[in-house]
Amino acid sequence: MVLINRKDLIDLFHENGYKVTPQRLAIFECIMGRRDHPSASEIHSELKREYPTISQATIYNTLHILRDIGAIQELGFEDGKTRFDPDTSIHVNLVCTACGKITDFTDEDLVKAWIGMVEKTAKKTVGQRLDLYYKCTHCSRMVSE
Amino acid sequence: MVLINRKDLIDLFHENGYKVTPQRLAIFECIMGRRDHPSASEIHSELKREYPTISQATIYNTLHILRDIGAIQELGFEDGKTRFDPDTSIHVNLVCTACGKITDFTDEDLVKAWIGMVEKTAKKTVGQRLDLYYKCTHCSRMVSE
DNA sequence: CTCCTTATTTGTAATTATTCTAAAGTAATA
DNA sequence: TATTACTTTAGAATAATTACAAATAAGGAG
Fold it and tell me: What is the pLDDT of residues A18-32, one digit of tens each?
């Protein structure tokens, strides 16, 4: 699990020539604070309480910057929504195909095999995404009832 | 590499209570025929030559059915587009982050580690997605020039 | 083979996530 | 503190996907 703290984030912004604004910090801390890989609109809804005038454009702009500087991982889904994960390390996203709940999972053997595979491809990696799709116990119950 | 042939697909449709139509077969064969994980609109454009009146709704409807019966894998991306892979086995999608080109890659050790990881999670898997993001040689050249 | 029922296709409108734009605001530097 | 460029904002524009109702066709019964 690789999670960036506030100070490192501020440094990252400066290193990359971006200014530090309260909105940018709040957006990152929103993603860090919740463990559920929120979408842009979920982040917007949550932050409107603290910043009533925060706009969608700021949310999207900041999310793209955070992705570009490697502070978060962006996960596009088939429902058209994109969700954001503050853990940029090699890990598995356990995704319930019914309710959409996402849980992170790390497995050392898999990480080793992944790194080995990357070496075999001889590619300069800029990121990865490992999803496991399943039905969570709650959603399995729903169907069988 | 798990690729379904035409006869198996027809059986799959019948087993799942779906009718077999020329459009459905053509859409599947379009995805099978090209090796580039096309998007819905790319499939639509290609098939309009053979079926000038084919509608977007049919494309989307069929793609969702193909996904539901396990004939294809659906890959949502951050740019809002969804692309379709006729290989539903455990394999890596090598994705160029600049031009979007996708190449499939299979690594036996990684497959073993993945299966082991799935057992550890004790989840009933319904699918998976393994993406490796990189810049292809062509796009790397573009940047350095 | 023909008819009938029902699923499917079609064309278009509606929806929704994301991007664009230009004016107003603010972080960072001197 | 003043300046300047970057950032935020609000709202319009864009583009992928979905919804809908009428027309069409697959597949089973006779």
Answer: 999 999 999 999 999
Under a CB-based contact definition with an 8 Å cutoff, are residues A117 and B107 in contact? Answer: yes
Quick check: B76 pLDDT over 70?
A: yes
Alpha-carbon distance of B74 to B60, in angstroms, equals 11
| Dihedral sign computed on CA atoms, order B91, B97, B103, B109 | negative
> For A26, how many CA atoms within 13 A lie in the half-sphere containing its CB?
16
Establish whether the CB of A52 is closer than 7 Å to any nucleic acid atom in strand C: no
Q: pLDDT per residue over B91-141, tens digit each? A: 999 999 888 899 999 999 999 999 999 999 988 899 999 999 998 888 877
Q: What architecture is domain B6-85?
A: Orthogonal Bundle (1.10)
- Pairing between β-strand A125-134 and β-strand A92-96 as defined by DSSP bridges: parallel
Domain boundaries, chain B: 6-85, 92-144
The answer to whether strand D lies under 7 Å from the CB of residue A53 is yes
C10 nearest neighbour residue (CA to C1'): B55
CATH 3.30.1490.190, applies to B92-144: yes
**Confidence at A144, pLDDT banded by 50, 70, 90:** very low
Q: Do A80 and B76 touch (CB under 8 A)?
A: yes
**A126 and B82: CB-CB below 8 Å?**
no
